[in-house]
Amino acid sequence: MKNTDTDTDMSTSAGRGTSTDMDTSAGRNTDTTARGPHTSPGYWLHHAALVWRQVCESGLGQTTYPQFNVLSAVSLLTGRDGSAPTQQQVADFARMDRMMASKVIRVLQDRALLVRAPDPHDARRQRLVLTEQGRSALRTCIDAARKADEEVFGSGPEVEVLREALRAIAERR
Length: 173
Prior knowledge:
Elements: E1 2-3, E2 8-9, E3 22-23, E4 28-29, H1 41-57, H2 65-77, H3 87-94, H4 98-110, E5 114-118, E6 126-130, H5 132-153, H6 157-170
Antiparallel strand pairs: 1-2, 3-4, 5-6
Helix pairs in contact: 1-5, 2-3, 2-4, 2-5, 3-4
C-alpha cells in the first residue's frame, strides 16, 4: 500500500504501517502510527519557522533577524505623538530577555540605526528612537519578510487563515 503523503511503501503483513516502515531513500521512519516529535504540530511549526527565517534572513542584508525584531518593535511601539518606547518595553514586545535585547540594541546603536537616550522622567530607563538609517534598514527588512512570506507560504485566502491561526496561538501568551 502506498502512503499518498510520502509515496513510500507502507506494506506489511497486516496491511498497516509499523514502526519498522522506513523510507529507504531518505532513511526516515514513515510510519504514521508511531509516536514521536514528527507527530506534533509544534515540531512542524518550529521547522516551518526555521525555513521562513532562513529565507527571510537571506534578504536582510547586514541586519540580523534579532535586529529586525528590535527595529520592528521600536517602530511599532513609537507613539503617534513621537513618544519613544523604553528599552524594557521593546524587549518585552520582541519577546527577548533583557540581556539579549541590550546586546542587540547596543549593536543597532553602534550601526547608527537607533539612539538610546535616558528617559526625562526616570534616569533608570532608556528610550529608543529609530534614526533615518534605522527606518531605511527596517523598510529593507520588511520587504525581505514579505518576500519570504510569499516564497514560503504562497498567497491566497489560506494564507490569511494560517496567519490568523498563528496570531491566535501567539496571543495566548
